[in-house]
Amino acid sequence: MPCANRAAAFRSIAFGLRGAAVFVLLGLLSASAGALAKSDVRAAKTGKDPVTLLRMSIDAPRTVSYIGQFETVRFSSARASATIVKVEHRAPAMTRRWFVAPEALYGDYIITRGTATYDFDTKHGRLTISHNPTIDNQISAADDFDQVLGNYRAVPDGADTVADRATQSFVFVNKHTGERALRVWLDRETHLVLKKEEYHANGAIASQARFEELRYTDTIPRDLFAIDPPRGYAQVAGVDVDMPSSDIQRVIKQARFTPYEPKNLPQGFELDSGDVTTVNGVRTLQLLYSDGLRTISLFENANGAAADFGTLRPKTIEFEGHSAQYVEDGPTTLLTWNEHNLHFALVGDLLRNELIAIANSVVP
Length: 364
Prior knowledge:
By secondary structure, the chain is of the alpha+beta class. The protein is built from five helices and 21 strands. It has two domains: 6-236, outer membrane lipoprotein receptor (LolB), chain A; 242-360, MucB/RseB, C-terminal domain (Phosphorylase Kinase, domain 1). It has helices at residues 33-46, 50-59, 138-151, 248-255, 352-360; strands spanning 13-14, 17-18, 66-75, 80-90, 94-101, 109-113, 116-121, 126-131, 152-162, 165-174, 180-187, 193-199, 205-216, 234-240, 270-279, 282-290, 295-301, 315-319, 322-329, 332-339, 342-348. The protein has a twelve-stranded mixed beta sheet with strand order 9-10-11-12-13-3-4-5-6-7-8-14. Strand 12 (193-199) and strand 13 form a beta hairpin. The longest helix has 14 residues, at 33-46. Mean pLDDT is 81; it is low at 1-47.
């Protein structure tokens, strides 16, 4: 499913870093035992169980090529923001996204080839090149999916039509809370994800993404994914993300300062990996926690580097005697504060009060 990257880059911005994104597709919907039984019957008629179909959706972009228009709407407490991109995808791993809206991004485009991303800023004549090995890591995707199934129950939720394609929708119920988090619509023929809705813990829609137009084709020319910058463009090195490590103690030693970890996490969340990245001379530690579907990243640095909110306008909030700043964008919240001579940032697919509860447990 394509991602309108710069308009939604908030998810991974902290201290100027892009966090390692966890590959997720799924969602949830509360259901009674009777409804679940009916869902099992519907799944049996398709010849494949829900888990098999959802695993096939992970592999779909590697096997099908398409052209379409994709819209993402992210809801926060104060506003809704929409991004529209025209997308061309040539399997297995080349994608071009051309921004139609908002106006500030019109004409800009992003090309992804494997683990490399080429961001063309047409208004300023700038090409930013970044690398992220997690983009094209199928092993990581499979591991994340297994963790999702450990914490969520997959429930088929009926047929629908998206972009003139017949779909089967699925929701995921959190086994610990009974709350829904996300719902996806899969193309019945190709299993490509055509629509996705993410939900807050209170049931409100946090974001919606869907194809408005879609056409499958095997005739997309390779030239469309050319990465040579136009004449006169400045070439800028973006952030190169290393493969996150599960050897947390080794990562902590690389940080060269004594970090803190949260003592209070929602049920199902586990410490997944860590990474140390230096940007503009600032060594920053990232600890990534996940329940398979949702993620929480804790960023720490001892160099006095505050968070970069980009174009988002932070608000101030007080907790436990700290003056903190936060921004909300769709399902994601970013909370920053200073404590014990360290700068902290929490980024998570959680509500503000949930993130504050975690922040309270970081430093005793």
